[in-house]
Structures are given as C-alpha cells and as structure tokens.
Amino acid sequence: MIGRVSPLIYGIASYLVFFCSSLYAVAFIGNYLVPKSIDVGSEGGLAQSILTDVLLLGVFTGQHSVMARPAFKRWWTTIVPVSCERSTYVLISSLLLILIFWRWRPIVTTIWQVEGEPATILTAICWIGWLTALASSYMIDHFEMFGLRQVAARHEPAVGVQVFKMLLLYRVVRHPIMLGFLLAFWATPHMTAGHLLFAVLTTAYILLGVRLEERDLLAQFGTIYENYRQHVPMLMPRVLRRRSQLTTEPRAE
Q1: Dmax over Cα atoms in the chain, in whole Å?
Q2: How far is Cα 99 from Cα 117, in angstroms, rounded to an integer?
Q3: Which of 95, 96, 128, 172 has the most CB atoms less than 10 A away?
Q4: What are the φ and ψ backbone dihedral angles of 191, each rounded to 5 degrees?
Q5: What pLDDT digit, counting tens, does each position of 221-233 carry?
Q6: CA separation (Å) from 56 to 31, 44, 89, 240?
Q7: CA nearest 87: which of 21, 137, 12, 37?
Q8: How far is it, in rounded angstroms, from Cα 54 to Cα 59?
Q9: Which residue ranges make up each domain of the chain?
C-alpha cells in the first residue's frame, strides 16, 4: 500500500508547491499584494544586484534546459522512478523559483512609466498573457505536463507511435505557453531596470529553449513536425494564413 500511495502523495505535493509558487510569480512580477516582488525588497549596489539576479535566473533556466533533455531523462530515471520523473522536475523548478523570490535584488530605476488608458491596456495584455499560458497547458495535457497523470498511473507512459492533435492556440503558434509568458513579462505600465533585466534574460532563455525543444521534437517525429513548423509560426501569430496549410497536429497524445 505504501509503495502504491507514496508516488501519488509525492506528485500531489510537488504540484501544490508548483501551484503556490506560480500564483506568487504572478504577484511577484506584477507587484501585487506581496511583501517581496520584482520591484519591492531590499536593494543593494547596482553591480551586486545585477550579478545576483543574473545568477538566480541562470540557475533556474539552466535546470530547465538540462532536466528537459531526453538524454538527461534517460539517466535520471535510473535514479528516480519513471512515474516520479516529471514531478521531480516540477518540484525542483518550483523550489528554484521560490529561491528567486527570496533572493531577488530589485533595481528600481524607471525605464518607462505610463498612466491612464495606456497603463490599462498594458495591464490587460499582461493578464491575457498569464491566461494564455494557463489555458495552453490545458489544450495539451495540464496534468501530464506537471506530473500528476504519471504518478496516478504509476507506470511509464506508453512508447510508440504518437498522434498529433491540432488544438486551438496550437493552430496559431507552436508555443502559445511561451507566447503567454512573453506577454506577461513585457506588458507592464511601469518598467524598472530590474524588471527589464528579468524580461530580457527570460526572453533569451525562451528563444533558446524552444529551439532545443524543437530539436527534440524533430528527432522524435521527423517530417511530421517539420511540416508543422513550416506552416505554423513559432511565437508570433500570422494575421492571415490559409487554414488548408495546416496538415499536421502539434502535440502528442
């Protein structure tokens, strides 16, 4: 009984840490009602603050890049149960995100600040970004993405021919989750130097990360994914395109 229940408890606990840290991330980046945020907290010298923030983001993005690679997963699952691999990834990512919240050094020099209707528009775009990222995770498989389905099933996901599905926003861009993050990170009425540093570095990581992910998808799906890449843009939606061009489906079932 313990052997059957433990992975499920572990997966649920990991998901709850992810859920709480994600909610805090929205407040952290938007400076909403939290004691420590991207622009609120103890300040230090400029050079020290830049170095600290760059190191924090470097550790976070490095963990994402390394642990998401198939070669690492093959090695990692010789140490942790296959059913817990994704939950472990989610848990470590969430803990590193919490580390960013804790140790982030604000740099409050104003880059731009708008008020009135422009501020309202930027705030709305930011929230659209967060909602886009969340909704897109459900358009594929939210519970598999964050490890719950694996620990509930307690077996290795089936390996074999996988079917692509054309799902809503995935017909518009190949990476709508990342598009949502970009909107959320950049659309702010008050852009400080610290927020700009965060936005620039996370954007650079996103651009690199999607290319690494697509390399893995091309290796896995070959011409099917290449055809999808030819007809659906990576991050920037095309205003006009022929629906008949979309002959493949973007995510594996």
Answers
A1: 59
A2: 35
A3: 96
A4: -95, 115
A5: 788 888 888 889 9
A6: 19, 15, 17, 40
A7: 12
A8: 9
A9: 2-252
Ranges of beta strands (E only) in the chain are 110-113, 164-165, 190-192, 251-252
Give tens-digit pLDDT for 14-59: 999 999 999 999 999 999 999 999 999 888 899 999 999 999 999 9
Token representation of residue 50: 């830049």
Per-position DSSP letters for 144-203, written without gaps between them = HHTTHHHHHHTSPPP-S---EE--GGGGT-S-HHHHHHHHHHH--SEEEHHHHHHHHHHH
User: Quick one: which H or E segment has residue 39?
Assistant: none
- Report d(CA 208, CA 57) in Å as an integer: 14
Compute the half-sphere exposure of residue 56: CA atoms within 13 Å on the CB side of its CA.
23
Amino acid identity for residue 217 in this structure: L
